[in-house]
Amino acid sequence: KEIRKKEYKYNQETYIKAQCVRNMRVEFPEVYCVKISDKFQSGIHDFHLCINGKFVSIETKSKTGRASPMQKYHQQKILRAGGRSFVGVRSWNEFRKIVEEVIANG
C-alpha cells in the first residue's frame, strides 16, 4: 500500500506539472516558462518564469505534498535576490492566478 500511495502522489504532481506546461504555451505565449529537471541539485523549484522582466519560481505539490528544507532554502534565496517564489502550488488554476497577478502587478 505504501508504494501505491507514493505512486499516486507522484502521478498527481506529474499531472499538475503537465497541465501547467501545456496551458502556459497556449494561454501565456508571451511568458518565458521552463520546466526544470535537475537531478544533481535538490530543492530547485519545478518552474522558472520570466514575466515582464520579473523572475518567478514556482514549485508544484500534490494535495499532501510539503516543501522540503532545500526548497524553502531556495525560496528564501530567490526572495532575497528580488525574485518572486511560490511553493505549494496545487493546481493549474492556482498557477494561472499567480501568472495573472504578476502580469498585472509586477
Written account of the structure:
- Helix content is 49%, strand content 21%.
- A hairpin with a 2-residue loop joins strand 2 and strand 3 (54-60).
- The protein has 3 helices and 4 strands, in the order αβββαβα.
- The radius of gyration is 14 Å and the shape is globular.
- It has 106 residues and is α+β, with helices and mostly antiparallel strands.
- The model has no long low-confidence stretch (mean pLDDT 90).
- It has a 4-stranded mixed sheet, sandwiched between helices.
Structural descriptors:
106 residues; alpha+beta; four-stranded mixed beta sheet; 3 helices; 4 strands; 49% helix; globular
Number of helices: 3
**Poorly predicted parts:** none
The strand order across the widest sheet is 1-2-3-4
Strand fraction band? Answer: 15-25%
Secondary structure: helix percent? 40-55%
The secondary-structure element order is HEEEHEH
The count of β-strands is 4
How large is the radius of gyration? Answer: 14 Å
Profile the largest sheet.
4 strands, mixed
Residue-averaged pLDDT, rounded?
A: 90
Overall 3D geometry? globular
* N- to C-terminal distance: 45 Å
Helical/strand content category:
alpha+beta
